Amino acid sequence: MRRTFIILVSVLFALNAFASSAGKSASKVAQVSKGHWAKESTADHSQFKQLKAEFDYAPDVTVACLECHTNAGEHLKKTFHWNWGVMVDGKKIGKASGAPNNFCITAASNETMCSKCHIGYGYRNKDFDFDDEENIDCLVCHDTTGKYIKTASAGFPSAETDLNEIAQNVGLPQRHNCLSCHAVGGGGDGVKWGDTDTSLINPSHDLDVHMDADGLNMSCQDCHTAGNHQIAGEFIGRKAFTDYEKNMGRRDRKGKTVSCEGCHGDKPHNEWRLDNHTDKVACATCHVPFGARGGVPTMMEWDWSKAGLNTDMKPMAKFGGTKYDEYAHPIDEITGEPDTSVKSHTYKARKGRFKYVTNMIPDYAWYKGERTHRTFSDKFDPSKYSKENPLDIKMPTGSYDDPMAKIYPFKMHISNMPYDTEYNTLTAPLLYGKKKGSGAFWKDFDWDVALKLGNEYSNIPFSGKYGFIWTSMAMQIKHMVAPKAQALNCNDCHQKNGRLDNVPGFYMVGRDSSKALDWLGFLMIFGSLAGVAGHGFLRFINKNNKQD
Amino acid sequence: MSNIVLIYKAFERFWHWMQAFLILGMLLTGLEIHGIYQLFGFERAVNLHNIAAASWTVLIIMMFTWLFSTGEWKQYVPTMKGLIETGMFYAYGIFKGEKHPHHKNEQAKLNPMQRLTYLGVLLALVPAQIITGALYVFYHQWGMVGLEGSIDLIAYAHTLIAYSFLSFIIVHVYMTTMGHTLTGHIKAMVTGYEDLDEH
Predict the structure, then answer these.
(1) What is the rounded distance in angstroms from the CA atom of residue A391 to the CA atom of residue B99?
(2) Any CB–CB contact under 8 A between A485 and chain B?
(3) Mean pLDDT by 10 residues, chain A (548 residues)
(4) What is the dihedral of CA A537, A539, A544, A547, to 10 degrees?
(5) How many domains does chain B have?
(6) Which residues contact A536 (CB under 8 A, 6 or more apart)?
(7) Which alpha helices (DSSP H) does A23-150 contain, by range?
């Protein structure tokens, strides 16, 4: 018996050793040391005589840039940064093509405001010349001083800007350049994306293992590789971080996809059971356990229908008065309690009612790098939609059966937006105006006028009758990769009511079960117990019956 | 008068108790993995479950090897002879204080009902559970052997067989109390010796 036991034990050890060695493979991440990513230019721009001119007009700086960087203009004009539009499934998508989103609804008619995040000068209406290279704003991306600030003035920098200082201090884009627009989409820091806010300018290791200022200190373009000014990872044109070419190295990716797998490979765990997940589960699903982890709140709900009240809670359109504003602590979704470290708007007269959170628990969905795109001409049946089941504006597509799709984390932003109750289409308000009486909602607070003018501008048919409808828009969560100790654990998903409770199409152990089967098991087990209990009882009361 | 004989050999006892330990362990962890309760935490439960499963598979291979090399497999050949009498005894005779109709000896230590039940467990439930378990663990490697399909049917089968094992164990443990004394059968499975005349 002892020998048998020894054999059994040695076989088990052999099996274990096999199992653990089978999962081992060399990590594909290049070993990078601190400072590896810092780059030094071979040119000192303060020495160039072209940049020593007295600049009083920003496009003159562009002309100076183009004197040496002769092809940059042509490159720039092919970018999404410039065009704000791209063809997807035969539809032109993007701000410049008048596609709706569920934050500020539309850029069209509001260009003077919105173009403070366009890489151009003078984009104030439909007449903007997308062919004129002198309209390109080089500085917003290449300023290294942090002093270049664009305001709501058709993409021009603020009047106080010292263009000479800026022009002589250009360099490779830094995190603050990208984040000066990408962190503040939707109208403020962290509002739009659940994973991109100014906390990433100088992040800790806890917030972002890659950009950790005291560690790897990677720049945005270490992942978002750029070639000919084409920045990789632009997702509207469906080339984002869903990786169709997993074996393409980082060097070859310039201007193409960005993916975790590009550096880490798709079997990065040295543990075969975890690696088994990577065919269906995106890296970010486990490794970005929460959105808005940097202390900056992100907006989850926006109710436009409540906008326009003065401090007496009366409509500004009729009674005038002072715009009503309200702040509160956002909910910290880890604790479920208000996050007392920060406050955010809960009401703004110009915009309506908001709900913000920190440490957002993402929603999860199948995604293959493609979202649906609703336009202002797409009709819908409003009776089908509600706050719980909002109208899709941009939602992920994909399913378990699609080999390109994986489960990704999202921030699902919902918004109660104006729509045309006659034509059953979304509708585009004029929001930004310079003065009262312009009809812009942010000046006059009158939806009837703002919608009439906005739709006219965009050639969208408008019946004059409007209501509000809840819509949803999915924002991918992929930045703010946490240290691995903070990644999700097995039972965050493998349980009933876990993170993946609503992701359909497959059987997941711990989450799914067959009710019928569990009832059958219950009957079998308790039937057996009842049977033996009854039998034992009969034996007990008959225990004096003995035949010899 | 007594007739004390070695009825369960050392390997048989080792196999039996090791298997009992492993199956109970797999039920405990398996039901947690299924989401019935929380005990070890999902990750540890899965690890323990898989270690027990691999051990059990090795044990079962050793057991079949033993059965065939010693000829003990003959103990499990089903027979109709005495089957009805045995059934009648458990259903009726035992309450009247009748004696068990089967006369145990080293060549026929299992009664006709035991033969049928254990044969079913060893040839159906055990292999089916090991195979569905292996398919479950190696789901992502199905493609390597040309298999395709979804995991849910495998999961349902594995769960149903687990419930069957639990039912079996409940009845099995209860029936150990039906020897000459309440603990007679269990003692025999521990020491290997049973007094066949007392039976």
Answers:
(1) 76
(2) no
(3) 52 46 40 48 90 93 96 95 86 84 95 95 95 96 95 93 95 95 95 96 96 93 88 72 57 69 87 92 96 97 98 95 97 97 97 98 92 91 97 94 92 98 97 95 97 96 98 95 96 95 95 95 97 95 72
(4) 170
(5) 1
(6) B174, B177
(7) 58-68, 72-76, 80-83, 111-114, 139-142
Report the C-alpha gap between A144 and A139 in whole angstroms.
9
* pTM metric for this prediction: 0.89
Classify burial at A531, counting beta carbons within 10 Å of its beta carbon; exposed 0-12, middle 13-18, buried 19 or more: middle
What torsion, rounded to 10 degrees, do the Cα atoms A180, A186, A190, A196 define?
-60
Kindly provide the b/e burial profile for residues A42-56, where b requires at least 16 CB atoms within 10 angstroms of the residue's own CB: eeebeebeebeeebe
CB-based contact B95 A512, cutoff 8 Å: no
Nearest to B94 among A495, A514, A539 (CB): A539
As to burial, measured by CB atoms within 10 angstroms (0-12 exposed, 13-18 middle, 19+ buried), residue A6 is: exposed
> Residue type at B61?
I
Nearest CA in chain A to B58: A8
Give the CATH number of the domain where residue B126 resides: 1.20.950.20
Structural contact between residues A238 and A273, judged by C-beta atoms closer than 8 angstroms? no
Q: Which residues of B touch A1 (CB under 8 A)?
A: 10-11, 13-14
Q: How far apart are CA A386 and CA B111, in angstroms?
A: 67
Tokens of A178: 């990208």
How many CB atoms sit inside 10 A of residue A322's CB?
10
Interchain pair B42, A489: CB under 8 A: yes
| Domain around B76 | 4-198
Strands A406-420 and A363-367, how do they pair?
antiparallel
